[in-house]
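Hi, here's the filled form for the chain we discussed.

Project: internal
Contact: R.S.
Residues: 294
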Amino acid sequence: MDGHEGDCARKGLLTRRLGLLAGALVVAAAGTAHAGDGDPDVGAGSCHVIKFCVSAGTHGHHGHRADQTGDTHGDSTDSGVKCRYVKVDPEPPADFPAWKGADPDKSDLYFYSCSDGSDDNPDGFVAVPQGQTPQQQVNPQELAQRAVDSMTLLGPDIASPRAAGRYTVGVPVWMWVNRSATTYGPNTASASAGGVTVTATARVSKIVWQMGDGTSVTCHGPGTPYRASVGMAQSPTCGHLYSTTSAGGGNGRLPVTATSTWTIGWQGGGAVGQLNEVRQTNVQVAIGEVQVVR
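And the returned structure, exactly as it came back:
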């Protein structure tokens, strides 16, 4: 899809969304304004007149423009998000849901469409006091990512296997990690912009262990610390059994990598969502075998 086709697709999507949002309005006319009939800024497709007709510009256009929709404000930017505002003129009835309790006699209604270059971006209506300019609409997911970036999310704090330890072929290895806010969670942070605050909480949902012998073990928890009283039993939550020594590995050791997946739930700005981050830690372990003396 080239740039022109992308613009057309975005404009078509905004027109369809606007039709859904304005479904409560009475159809005022059956006219159709076709692209290319005098406004080069309107993309392919049509704008059905339903009480008011909004022709939403895309993020690639700049400056100020006026057309049959009334006044428009040029694109505004904030951390890569660009929003275009179109003043609704004439205004819809007072019972139109987009007013959200605002007084139509003291407020202006705008339709906004935003983009940060991805396919999932906010659009809708916003009411502001008469004569004031709409504030930049904030993408809550972008704020959630800012909150995550402010956290110090690290790879697993490996307690076992230890680099200084020696492990034996055929003897169960118990794997577990130390837990803290930065290595296991929960870890909570917030980010704010444009009057919107988003709070995110991160927790490790799983740890995948690459054991260095071609096998991997997925553990959905921190693992269970070994106790001498269990003897040769296998770990009930996270363990491995080596069948060969590490003699063929670099420096006589095997590289073990523990990769944690952080699952981050966030909410704010009237939205909720989930993000994932991945971190890892490496350790070199020595695997020997029992020598039988006759």
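Let me know if anything looks off before we file it.
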